[in-house]
From TrEMBL:
SMART domains: Fe_hyd_SSU (SM00902). This is Iron hydrogenase small subunit domain-containing protein. The keyword Iron-sulfur applies. It comes from the Bacteria. InterPro entries: Fe_hydrogenase_HydB, Fe_hydrogenase_ssu, Fe_hydrogenase_ssu_sf, TAT_signal.
Length: 113
């Protein structure tokens, strides 16, 4: 590309025309692509919600009869949702495994994540 100071008027006008045309067309094409993507996302959300509404009669976990039975006075977790036994059985614990991964990498094992 020529230096703008040594460019002829005709070359400058051509360059400016191409730049403006690309900016206008590029913007319109981008706007149309974003609109199409948002429309697709909206249709996908609508179909997922419609499928959930038709298939699943129980929409909330607290309305599930099995959960109600589990936490009932004579149920397995009778202490309630925040009791000691439910916390022990239903919650996970973090354990640092980075040293094991470093040892495997040092041995030359390739890990695909």
């Amino acid at each position: 590309m020529k230096n703008i100071a040594t460019m002829s008027r005709r070359g400058f006008i051509k360059l400016a025309g191409f730049t403006c045309g690309y900016a206008v067309l590029g913007f319109n094409m981008t706007r149309e692509a974003v609109a199409a993507t948002l429309e697709f996302i909206g249709l996908r959300q609508q179909s997922v919600y419609e499928a959930d509404r038709k298939i699943y009669t129980i929409r909330k976990s607290q309305d599930n009869p099995m959960i109600k039975k589990l936490y009932a006075k004579d149920g397995f977790l009778h202490e309630g949702p925040c009791g000691h036994e439910s916390h022990h059985l239903l919650h996970t614990h973090y354990s640092d495994r980075s040293e094991s991964l470093k040892a495997l990498k040092a041995k030359g094992v390739k890990l695909a994540l």
